[in-house]
Amino acid sequence: MPLFITFEGGEGSGKSTQSKLLHQRLVKLAIPAVLTCEPGGTLFGKKLGHWLKWGDTRKITPITELLLFNAARAQSVAEIIIPGLKEGKTVISDRYDDSTTVYQGYGRGLDLEMVTCINRAATQGLKPELTVLLDVPVSDGLKRKRSEKPDRFEQEELAFHRRVMEGYLKLAQSEPERWLVIDGTQSKEKIAELIWPRVSQLLSKGPK
Length: 208
Ligand code: TMP
Fold this sequence. Notes:
single chain, alpha/beta, Rossmann fold, 5-stranded parallel beta sheet, 56% helix, globular, binds thymidine-5'-phosphate
């Protein structure tokens, strides 16, 4: 099957910009590619995502978040990711199950084994060949978003976002062959140039 690539990072890390740039590059090179995002890649996910981001903070428990992000993911895997890969396309997802591990696991403090187990059910065990982590200091990322209306996650205290970032770095350290960690404070052009060699190497090799 062709490549599955995910982008991860905290708030305002620039992962949506980079996933779009990579998708555009592949399309220009006539490499069939699909770009999706979580939680809003399907209509179902978009509705859940809106509720998760803008719903009443007090009423949404961490477990509810865990299940709803994974409900959106299960739909995205079945509707977009697996069909895309089966059609021979490279699939790029802006966020995937690592987001749940760090936000609901490290950030909200849910048991990591339980999070992994529920993530696995939603992903059907499908793992990306490459995950790009855009590492931006938490306060810088939040500042980038400050002009917009903050959602439930952006309103969280700094300590929450620090736990999320620490979680990402731990995951990246534990699986260095899958993760590419990039200093996200650089220009978007420079970041895209740092990502491309790894993608092009994987494309020429094909997935494991
Ligand atoms: P985004 O569209 O800005 O990436 O917003 C998605 C928000 O939802 C972001 O704050 C991270 C959060 N999130 C989780 O907490 N868990 C998840 O599994 C996913 C996909 C996102």
